[in-house]
Amino acid sequence: MTNKRIYRVYHKTDPVPMIPTWPFVHIPESGQDYWLPSPGVLPSPEYHAMDKYTTSVSTHSWGTLSGFHEAHKDDVQIAQWLMDKTRATFSMNTLRWLSGALVYVLKKIKAIVNSQQITGQFTLMDHLAYVLAKGINLAETLSNWVLLFIRKVMEVLGLKPVGKSEELNKDFIRNMLNRLQAKINTQVDAALRYQM
């Protein structure tokens, strides 16, 4: 079966389509996902409501909806975003950048996690923290990418970013990832409760 007739349509400020977070990718990955306009850049619980979706698509055909396509970020764009000195804020767009940045950094590390070192009792955040911490120890260039990624996460959380990669360890990285996940979950919970 092909995915030619599968379409993923979501409002740009609906936080629910962001779950689960990294490094999860929704299907189809064929470029047939449509980013419906909704006001602002912050997560908006009301834009998860089905009546908003109905209104947003009611006057469009699939052909016109394709004009709302969200382009995926390439590695060059992600690297530039990570190096950009502009402070990252909590917004739907920033969460999309962070998602792409995590995949970018993990590709740079190319670490293979040994299942004997990390067992099934650990969470996804434990695994990610382990791999990112491993990247800190591999080479200076890799540690810089991990540091840039964690700095962006800390900016989104409203924290003062760490200065040097030596300040990062597995527990610290896991804590930052868990805090960001908790912040996203709060927005998703608000969107789901909005329906009730």
Alpha-carbon Rg, integer: 18 Å
Shape: elongated
Structural class: mainly alpha
Can you list the strand order of the major beta sheet? 1-2
Uncertain stretches: 111-116
Q: pLDDT average, as an integer? A: 76
Number of strands: 2
State the separation between the terminal residues, measured CA to CA.
36 Å
Number of domains: 2
- Fraction in beta strands: under 5%
Percent of residues in helices comes to 40-55%
Biggest β-sheet: count, sense, barrel? 2 strands, parallel
Determine the number of helices (DSSP H or I, runs of at least 4 residues). 7
Which H/E pattern describes the elements? EEHHHHHHH
Question: Overview of this structure, please?
Answer:
With 196 residues, the chain is mainly α. The chain has 2 domains: 8-71, no CATH class; 75-192, no CATH class. It is 49% helix and 4% strand. It contains 7 helices and 2 strands. It has helices spanning 50-57, 62-65, 75-83, 92-109, 124-138, 140-156, 170-194; strands at residues 8-11, 33-36. A two-stranded parallel sheet has the order 1-2. Helix 5 (124-138) packs across helix 6 (140-156) and helix 6 runs parallel beside helix 7 (170-194). The longest helix is centred in the last third of the chain and has 25 residues, at 170-194. The chain is elongated and about 55 Å long. It starts with 7 loop residues before the first strand and ends with a helix. The model is unreliable at 111-116 (pLDDT under 50).
